[in-house]
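Allow me, if you will, to draw on your knowledge of protein folds for a short while. I have a record of one protein: its chain in single-letter code and its fold written as discrete structure tokens. Kindly check, if you would, that the fold set down in the tokens agrees with what the sequence suggests. Thank you for your consideration; the sequence and its tokens are set out here:
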Amino acid sequence: MSRMSPADPSRRHRRLPDLHALEAFVTVCDAGSMALAAQRLGLSQSAVSQAIKGLEQELELKLLDREVRPAAPTRAGHALRARATELLARANAMVDEV
């Protein structure tokens, strides 16, 4: 998982991940399946899958191992899940406070 260092100026121009895609990813991890995550989010399974694929492309990382059932987070996926869970909690708190 070698990537650019945080001090690398080219990182400043990267887009931030979409919060809805992060929410879909965390929900899949928590639910243990795309179908159950889709149900919890009120989305189609295809929409959840596409959101996660888009997130993987944007971050240039494989986040889920889809060769096992149920799909399981990769090492990068575990790291993102922890940070995304915290970010989503803060975003929800921000909305609640406004």
